[in-house]
Amino acid sequence: MDTVRVLQVAGFKNSGKTTLIRTLIAAAESQGLRTATVKHHGHGGTPALPDPETDSMKFFGDGAAASAVSGGGIIQLHLREAETGPLPMIRLAAAVRPDLVLVEGFKQEPFEKIVLLRSREDWQQLKDLPGIRLAVTETAKAHGAPEIIAREDTEAIRGWFGRWLKGGTGYVHL
């Protein structure tokens, strides 16, 4: 796969990014689309790791560049990667041939994106991000956004997402 379709969800902490991505996953699944997600761990440090006494984590702890374990239709992968940012994870996610990769966080990346706003101040700080296609806001104040939908209007958000999917934009070259 040389390209993959990417839609990013950006906003500040507790703005509803995870909730929105879950809504988008359900909407995509209802259309028969396969999604993958990539998330920025914005809590500092490394993400929580599984029990260090499992064999795969022992391998990783001993310095393996990658350690994977499979069972019950699930593959768990731990990988050391010097390159930062979402692109290495998008490349990995693309291996399962998704129709769409949803990215949470990584605000400054140039992907087409939905921004979540809690206040007018959020918009002032986020309005210059690259690739904004939709602002989802509590106040409906996001002057200059290409399109604005109120946070509680889930049906309008799903409608926008359906139109975006049909629009055929958002492809990223791997």
TrEMBL record:
Classification via PANTHER family: MOLYBDOPTERIN-GUANINE DINUCLEOTIDE BIOSYNTHESIS ADAPTER PROTEIN, MOLYBDOPTERIN-GUANINE DINUCLEOTIDE BIOSYNTHESIS ADAPTER PROTEIN-RELATED
Protein name (database record): Molybdopterin-guanine dinucleotide biosynthesis protein B
UniProt-listed InterPro entries: MGD_biosynthesis_adapter, MobB_dom, P-loop_NTPase
Pfam family, one: MobB
Source species: Bhargavaea beijingensis
Alphabetized Gene3D superfamilies for the sequence: P-loop containing nucleotide triphosphate hydrolases (3.40.50.300)
Residues of the Molybdopterin-guanine dinucleotide biosynthesis protein B (MobB) domain: 6-125
Cleaved signal peptide residues: none
Domain of life: Bacteria
